[in-house]
Amino acid sequence: MQVASATSTFAMFFSASMSVVQYYLLDRFPVPYAAYFVVVATVAAFAGQHVVRKIIAILGRASIIIFILALTIFVSAISLGGVGIEHMVEKLENNEYMGFENLCHHS
User: Fold this and answer.
1) What span, in angstroms and rounded, lies between the C-alpha atoms of 107 and 91?
2) How large is the C-alpha radius of gyration of the chain?
3) Domain map of the chain by residue range?
């Protein structure tokens, strides 16, 4: 189990790092802004890990991690979907370009 966890952690870290490198090379990466988020994310990760360990100790079940993860993904999906729908409705009301072309007029 620990090998799988270490492998998935490395893959996630590597993937995120490559995205950071790409943004940096394209000069689309504000370093002070990113440094702030690194500090905030690190503090949040340690605090979250501490809280989850306490909850596991109280409940005696590690399955709470799965429920927390599922809830986080659900809230994220609903939030992102809501924001996307809001932007789409706004563009439709303003007759703005949404990236779609008329397929009938292409030769």
Assistant:
1) 27
2) 21
3) 1-62, 64-107
